[in-house]
Amino acid sequence: MKCLQLVGSCVLLILAAGFADEQAKCRAAEGQQPGWEGTWDREGVAAMIRSRLATVDAARMAADLFYLASDPLPYRKLNFTLPGHEKNTLHEADDFLAGKLEGWGYQVQREGVKVQAYRRDTSKPKQHQYSPPMPEDPWYTAYNLYAEKKGGSRPGEIIVVLAHKDSQSWIDSPGANDNAIGTVGVLETARVLAEYPSERTIRFLLCNEEHTPWTSVTAAQNAKSRGEKIIAVFNLDGIGVKSPEETAAGKQTLVTAYTEPAGERIARLMGAVNDRFRIGLEHRIAKRPGPGDDDGSFVKAGYPASVINIGSWPYADPNYHGEGDIPERTDVPNAAKTVKATIAAVLTLDQGP
Fold first, then answer.
1. How far apart are CA 219 and CA 297, in angstroms?
2. Alpha-carbon span 189 to 338, nearest angstrom
3. Contact 322, 126 (CB under 8 A)
4. CA atoms of 95 and 257, how far apart (whole Å)
5. First to last CA, the chain
6. Largest CA distance in the chain
7. How many CA atoms lie within 13 A of 246 on its CB side?
8. Is-contact 70 326, C-beta < 8 A?
9. What is the pTM of this model?
């Protein structure tokens, strides 16, 4: 009998081990890496993340969105200055954003990059009428804005949260969905984490994409030349933006697109935190054919763990690059949920092994 009991116990142990192994495989397939589960299950970590997510303020995001894409700033462009103002509207936006960040205790650094405004080619489809400037066209200084939380135990490992803050230079589009909403998403992330004692360094970057050359290229290349170890890049661009049909149906969408396998791990983490913390997004993952957008600048510079968080893929806003891209059409609650998911992912990576 004892031999039978011993055999039975061994069988159970083998089955249990096999079950645990299968669970680990399932977690990996779903993007819930064992390290993430272990991180969340550590005492106080999940509760800390939930408490931070509870402070995300959609109303504050909406107020900042209207400031940047309606009143007092109808656009954010280097080649437009409001009557009676000394600074162009992009530099005015920079001052607004820097003031917010400094009010929360951050030191803001400005990195100047020489750029030109795109020309407009009306022979193209309207959404893609931007065309290269000519050499004789004016040059401007666009600024990358940096705000940073220095990590305590692992300051040399950097997590980047970024968005492009400029609106189109070739057409009078308020650029609410592209990309004032991503800009205020980064701003809200910085506010929520302002007093968070991070283990790793968390860097907030507000760059420019609607003038040429893209200033995220300079940011990525300079990080590489400094030998920085960037372990993840989250690009917030068009968050919560989707088709009119999805909007009418009340869909709360998020697509995380990646380029390299290291980015896929971050993309799957986005889905995992959405499930674990019950954020309520309809999340899916997309593999992009090659590096693009501001996350692509970091991929090209040698930082493969880079993703874009966006509301639809392919991008489904009918007002893309048009005058109708106004804040009244922005789904701020959807964007706020994306901010929550991004914060949860950042905190998971920061607290992880």
1. 8
2. 10
3. yes
4. 31
5. 46
6. 96
7. 20
8. yes
9. 0.91
Inform me whether the pLDDT recorded for 12 exceeds 90: no
The pLDDT tens digits for 65-110 are 999 999 999 999 999 999 999 999 999 999 999 999 999 999 999 9
Question: SS3 sequence, the chain?
Answer: CHHHHHHHHHHHHHHHHHHHHHHHHHHHHCCCCHHHHHHHHCCCHHHHHHHHHCCCCHHHHHHHHHHHHCCCCCCCCCCCCCCCCCCCHHHHHHHHHHHHHHHCCCCCEEEEEEEECCEECCCCCHHHCEECCCCCCCCEEEEEEEEEECCCCEEEEEEEEEEECCCCCCCCCCCHHHHHHHHHHHHHHHHHCCCCCCCEEEEEEEECCCCECCHHHHHHHHHHHCCCEEEEEEEECCCCCCCHHHHHCCCCEEEEEECCHHHHHHHHHHHHHHHHCCCCCEEEEEECCCCCHHHHHHHHCCCCCEEEEECCCCCCCCCCCCCCCCHHHCCHHHHHHHHHHHHHHHHHHHHCC
**Residue 258 clears pLDDT 50, i.e. is over it:** yes
What is the phi/psi pair of residue 114, to 5°?
Answer: -80, 125
Among candidate residues 101, 126, 108, 115, the one with its CA nearest the CA of residue 189? 101
Q: At what angle do helices 332-351 and 34-41 cross, to 10 degrees?
A: 90
Spatial contact of 309 and 256, defined as CB atoms under 8 Å apart: yes
Cα–Cα distances (Å) from 40 to 37, 48, 275, 345, in that order, read 5, 10, 12, 11
Query: Look-up: residue for tokens 């639809």?
Result: 312
Write the pLDDT tens digit of every residue in 208-245: 999 999 999 999 999 999 999 999 999 999 999 999 99
Whole-angstrom distance, CA of residue 155 vs CA of residue 229 = 10
Question: Which positions ≥6 away from 10 have C-beta within 8 Å?
Answer: none
Beta-bridge partner residues of 246: none
